[in-house]
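Input/output pair, single chain:
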Amino acid sequence: MATVAVLLTDDFEDVEFTRPRDALLEAGHDVEVLGPKAGETITGKRGEAATEVARHPGDVPTSTYDALLIPGGYSPDQLRLDEASVAFAKEMMRTGKPVAAICHAGQLLVEAGVVEDRTLTSWPSVRTELELAGAEWTDEEVVVDGNLITSRRPDDLDAFSRTLVDSLRTN
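Output:
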């Protein structure tokens, strides 16, 4: 089965982490949280979920993982200031492995410089930033462009999680 990295820090959107994680675990995959401070317990913005950061993304090669999940909330905006998290997301995109980003996660992808000429979706307030970075934004439940899987909001989580799990069957 696959090993999926999750780039995460405090104030993530709780269900945008827990629902895809649970779907991945139910499908038999391993999930490892990467963030700025290994060993730190981080909490979702609603206080409904907490998890421990297993490793800093600068301490592990992307080849360790088969896919990347980037939940939304305030976490992606904070992670874009962590050079290792940005570099990790950029490298995962470069490898062609599945990268699943929901809601505000597009902010981290903009910082990584990987959205130009890509079609994707996000939370509506991120639309202009994505378009200014060269992406084509569309308002759909799930958008797949090559290895990039994107969704808009928590209401899209069933389709988003299913698409991510399905992408691991074909890779």
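The radius of gyration is 14 Å. The chain has six helices and ten strands.
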